[in-house]
Amino acid sequence: MTTQDRLFPATVMPDRNWWHALWPDPDGFARALRIERRMTVVDLGCGDGYFTAAIARQVGPGHVIGIDLDPAMLEQAQAACDGLSNCEWLLGDAMELSRLLGAPVDYVLIANTFHGAPDKTGLAREVAAALKPDGRFAIVNWHPLPREETTVLGQPRGPKTDMRMSPEQTCAIVEPAGFKREMLVELPPYHYGAIFVRTH
Domain residues of the chain, as ranges? Predict the structure, then answer.
């Protein structure tokens, strides 16, 4: 199976210009998701490292681990985090997260890719296995708006309308894997962050 075959559907890293237009304040994004100093955070499916760098700045003396299945993306992420000494990089499959990590972590973020996971509850279980007790799992998703309404730089963006998930749908999938929802964060203009705490 090739790397391309294993990528979650509809989760290809977007063009950098529109990504920056949509997320002009990545540091504010990391703060909004309650990422704290000294945490060990996994950026799961880190792509080109745009959010990974912001997380690294936010955790300070903590640690961020960027994981992606695509070696070219990991190279871009490393370049995006150049000069930040608290980053680590792992090439691997999200469905093998707990085996990739050497020890449990405080926080796992999956941004803009959960909608494409073929086995979403299985992925949530894998995240639970990778977290410390009371560790957090944050999922950033597009609100379930019609794709033609979610425009960036004049073009419709994001996954197909029928792949989008409401916060309620996300909770229904994640909570049976050993989580309870802690909070919901609005991430304008088109996203929300659902933050869960591991319960067992």
Answer: 3-10+23-198
- CA 33 to CA 28: how far, in whole Å? 9
pLDDT digits (tens, 9 = 90+) for 152-192: 999 999 999 999 999 999 999 999 999 999 999 999 999 99
Instruction: Name the class of domain 3-10+23-198.
Output: alpha beta
Q: Look at residues 18, 86, 102, 92 and name the one whose alpha carbon lies nearest to residue 53.
A: 86
Rg (Cα) of the chain, in Å, rounded?
15
Q: What are phi and psi of 138, to 5 degrees?
A: -115, 130
Q: Is the pTM of this model over 0.85?
A: yes
Q: Closest by alpha carbon to 135, among 86, 200, 38?
A: 200
Give the C-alpha distances (Å, rounded to integers) separating 30 from 45, 54, 117. Answer: 16, 6, 23
d(CA 138, CA 56): 16
Query: Other C-beta atoms within 10 Å of 44: how many?
Result: 27
User: pLDDT tens digits, residue range 109-141?
Assistant: 999 999 999 999 999 999 999 999 999 999 999
Name the residue with tokens 């609005």. Answer: 186
